[in-house]
Specification:
The protein has about 120 residues and is mainly beta. It has one domain: Jelly Rolls, CATH 2.60.120. It is built from one helix and eight strands, in the order αββββββββ.
Amino acid sequence: MSLETQVQELIDLSSYPQDSSLYNEGSNVPVTVTLPADTTNGKSWHIDTITVSYSAAPTGGLLSVYGGATPFRVDIIAGGPTAVAVFRNGTPGQALSVVLAPGGSGITGRVNVNAKLD
């Protein structure tokens, strides 16, 4: 089952606004968590916190949030967990994507997103 299918099953738009925690990981690849657009009710995502980690010090570590007019970006320069309080509001009816850049050969990146659809 693809991650997108798992996310769709995890998110039942009719039962929101409850909190959602979404997760993904990968080794030396961009790690993406996509919060799908609510095209039925036109609600928007509100990201509270993103926690990321690399299994070792990354080369070119970067966290980006896409959706809305201006991307949010922050460098991640060390291995281990990093929590980022984002408080990012999405645009009604549009998806948000959280992307952790590849950390380098043999380095696993992990992303946890705590968000709510209002």
